[in-house]
Amino acid sequence: MRLFVRALVLACACTGLVGAPAHAGHDPAREVLPNGDGWASTGSGTTGGAAAPADHVHTVRTRAELVAALAAPAPRIIRIKGVIEANTGPDGKPLECEDYATGGYTLPAYLAAYDPAVWGRDRKPQGPLEDARAASARNQLAVIGFEVGSDTTIIGASPGAGITGGSLRIHGASNVIVRNLTFRDTSDCFPAWDPTDSSPGAPPGNWNSLWDSVSLQKSEHVWIDHNTFTDEPNPDSTQPLHFERPYQVHDGQLDITAASDLVTVSRNVFTEHGKTMLIGGSNTSTTDPGKLRVSVHHNIFRNVQERGPRVRFGQVHVYNNLYEGSQVYSWGVGVKSQIYAQNNYIRGIAPEKVVYNWGGTAITDTGNLVDGKPVSLVGAFNTAFPEKKLGTDAGWTPTLNRGLEPAHRIRHLKAGAQPAGRHLVVGQGFATVQSAIDAAPAGAVITVPKGVYREVVKIPVSKRGLTLRGATGRAQDVVIDYDNANGTKKPDGTTYGTSGSATATIAADDFKARDLTFRNSFDRRKHPEITNTQAVAVKATGDRMFFDRVHFEGHQDTLYADSPNVTTRSRQYYRDCAITGDVDFLFGRATAVFDRATITALTRGSDPNGYITAASTQRSNPRGFLITNSHIRSDAPAGTYFLGRPWHPGGDPEAIAQVVVRDTVLPAAIKPVPWTDMSGFPWREARFAEYRNTGPGAGTGTDRPQLTDDEAKRFTKSAYLDGWNPA
Fold it and tell me: What is the pLDDT of residues 589-619, one digit of tens each?
């Protein structure tokens, strides 16, 4: 029957984006996998529910309707309209983690019972609270788990269609198609603590979750196409640390295990995740050998930490994928795996970090480009890890490679499900960055293509969880710029003031920015009529704000790291950022960590040439600015720059600056007495300190307060961020 259906439907099959406008008489839900398109096309092919009669076609909008459709007779087509919230009860009302908890389980009780100081680190948790955790997890799975049977097509039928918080479980099924859906935040309410599961270079133990967004077990002939997988708006980076380890609430985005076979994974987006795609679940499996044949092509892996994919046993063809953003590794070469990695494009990732050896012997690596240049990725790995060397021949040559193209064509790859305003691209329906911000819902991702955008940007409190990212992976390629200063006149004749001068004002909590530049290009030399020359590039007031590989450019008051008011503490993390200025160019009352920053102190041709910090930390807040593992550089003459001075806005006596500069290279421009008074407030009454700095500007003495080794333990990134783990 399936062969007949395949021949019938192929005549009108369209291989374009599912959900795109179709020609008359065309039904995307009845498309089948084309011949030659990866492992799932072999043999009888993959047709899903294409043969479903009219009464087997279901349009669903709720969890209850989806469950009913999955239980209906096959072959079946299930068209999802809108977003199905999986964590809902029979009445459609949202369910919280507390609603699943049973047996007396609470997270505080669990933490108390299995604290390594009490339980130890040599055995896994057991006992009543572990039993209660497992039972609570089963309660959640009974609600969020959707069992998919054979001969089924599940497809997004409207822009932005998808499942939030759910786990699509294709277990023991054959001939399944999943297309044009956004799978978002499949989070486990009850992660398990395993003190015996350790990661290299990290404290012992890990928190492990169970639920995958899509899980394949003991299934064959499956096509996963044009979907988007994301943890947003609840990435693991927003979770706390427990037992010194990230409290990870997500497992895989797409896991293919337990002797599954003949799978094609095409034109999906995998983003903002850790354990992305696992193929093969056990090193000792007796059923996986000869199975796990998977094709992974034309997918985008963006800011995923690992497993893109990690493979055991299977013959896996990884071709024409785009990899970009932060990661630990992409291709995990596991036991008896045979990965053939061909014509992929890697952007902004070190070559030696693409491959990792997890007990395998070889991987074929051919035609791949790193930032446009051919690179032997296996060679780069072998050079970096000579003790884990891999061979270069996986022992087979793929033939089911429909659509294979040169790697250079992949750098602008488009993939994923149709969005509904949650992933906006400036220039595609939005003429400006601000217009995209205005249209975006909370939690959306806005991509800004290469260029200079001359505009003022404001992100209000209501846009919580917004991500603003440069498209190229290079901050200098994407610049948001304006040139207002404190004294610049508005059309009504008043002036902007310091806060009003900001090129970007960002008030939303959980905001993220990556790979772009904020600049205030006000030039005081061209405007001698303006005496108030503060010119802010960014004013940031939200909590849990993460700036990753972002540049901040200006002169006076470049980066205003602040909070909404004096009673609110805002944590901000600036990682691998570049900050340029001359007078008080890091200032405000936020609790801000500048980690691995490059701080450029510009010369003004005077003495003093400037001041790097002007913190206004409230007395009640023990932590203000931490500059750590960074490099301060300057062309200014020796001994002409201060590390900082205490800012008391409006003469506020409760603003007692707190700044620590530690493990940082200081230039000769830094003064031997690096702190100074401000507006009549003495620096000695502030909370300034250094620790273990180096470089020609480093020094000690009575005028350079230093932390002791014991004190330094209290002035760390984790202490400042206080339970928030953004990295």
Answer: 999 999 999 999 999 999 999 999 999 999 9
Per the rule left: phi > 0, alpha: psi between -120 and 50, beta: everything else, 346 is: beta
Encoded tokens for 560: 């205003």
Give the 3-state secondary structure of residue 206: strand
519 phi, psi to nearest 5 deg: -135, 140
Among residues 315, 412, 406, the alpha carbon closest in space to that of 367 is found at 406
Query: Which H/E stretch holds residue 712?
Result: helix 709-712
Q: Which contiguous run of DSSP H or E holds residue 130? A: helix 128-144
**HSE toward the beta carbon, residue 84, CA cutoff 13 A:** 30
- Would the CA dihedral through 703, 709, 710, 715 be positive or negative? positive
42: its two tokens: 């072999």
Three-state DSSP at 241 gives: strand
> The tokens of 552 are what?
């901040």
Helix (H) / strand (E) element for 217: namely strand 214-217
Which residues, 6 or more positions from 529, have their beta carbon under 8 angstroms from its beta carbon?
Answer: none
Spatial neighbors of 432 by CB under 8 A, at least 6 apart, are 426, 453, 455
| Angle, alpha carbons 667-668-674 (nearest 5°) | 85
CA distance 223 to 152: 11
DSSP bridge partners of 522: none
The three state secondary structure string of 329-392 is CCEEEECCCEEEEECCEEECCCHHHCEEEEECCEEEEECCEECCEECCHHHHHHHHCHHHCCEC
- Which pLDDT belongs to residue 460? 85
Cα–Cα distance for residue pair 362/364, rounded to 1 Å: 7
Sequence-distant (6+) residues with CB within 8 A of 154 are 78, 80, 148, 168, 176, 177, 178, 179, 181
* Selection from 417, 416, 467 nearest residue 442 by Cα: 467
Let me know: does 24 contact 17? Beta carbons within 8 Å.
no
Q: List the chain residues with pLDDT less than 70.
A: 1-25, 160, 200, 233, 420-421, 429-431, 439, 491-492, 727
- Paired residues of 614 in beta bridges: 587
* pTM for the structure as a whole: 0.62
Q: What is the token pair recorded at 272?
A: 């903002």
Between the alpha carbon of residue 341 and those of residues 78, 267, 308, 349, 398, the distances in Å are 34, 16, 11, 16, 10
CA-based torsion, 61, 67, 72, 76: positive or negative: positive
* Sign of the alpha-carbon dihedral angle for 114, 116, 118, 122: positive
Taking the alpha carbons at both ends of the chain, their separation in whole angstroms is 51
pLDDT digits (tens, 9 = 90+) for 426-449: 877 566 788 778 767 889 999 999
Q: How far apart are CA 554 and CA 552, in angstroms?
A: 7
Q: Is 61 left (phi over 0), alpha (psi -120 to 50) or beta?
A: alpha
β-sheet bridge partners, residue 316: 294, 339
For the chain, the C-alpha Rg in angstroms (whole number) is 28
Taking a C-beta distance cutoff of 8 angstroms, is the pair 44, 221 a contact?
Answer: yes
Q: To which H or E segment does residue 133 belong?
A: helix 128-144
Q: Which stretch of DSSP H or E encloses residue 711?
A: helix 709-712
Query: In DSSP terms, which residues pair with 473 in a beta bridge?
Result: none
Hey, which residues are catalytic here? 307
202 beta partners:
none
What distance separates the 2 farthest-apart alpha carbons in the chain?
Answer: 88
Cα–Cα distance list, 173 to 63, 143, 724 (Å): 21, 20, 41
Residue type at position 69: A
Distances (CA, A) of 249 to 236, 237, 239, 334, 683: 7, 10, 8, 24, 44
